[in-house]
Design goal:
Shape: globular
Distance between the termini: 40 Å
Oligomer: single chain
CATH architecture: Roll
Order of helices and strands: EHEEHHEEEE
Number of strands: 7
Structural class: alpha+beta
Number of helices: 3
Radius of gyration: 12 Å
CATH topology: Ubiquitin-like (UB roll)
Strand content: 25-35%
CATH class: Alpha Beta
CATH superfamily: Beta-grasp domain
Low-confidence stretches: none
Length: 92
Amino acid sequence: MPEIKFLSNLADITGEKSLTIEYDGEISGLIDNLDTKLEGKDFKSTITDEAGEIKDFVKVLVNGNDIRGTGGLSSPIKDADEIVIFQTLAGG
């Protein structure tokens, strides 16, 4: 089962630092699945924009690789994958 880790403020939003769920598919479906599982937490709207794309300041890593370079929302997820989702920080 894939393990999903939430870092920084996403851990606060979800109330979880990590979850292990049964899932086989693509990142887009995983996000929908997590949004349902985390009902009332505004998970999907926190990490995706109105077009359904991952927001610029959100990183989704599968086994340490940013999905933007490996297929985006169509990136496949396998049983033993580690998914890390976090918002990048910026400041001046």
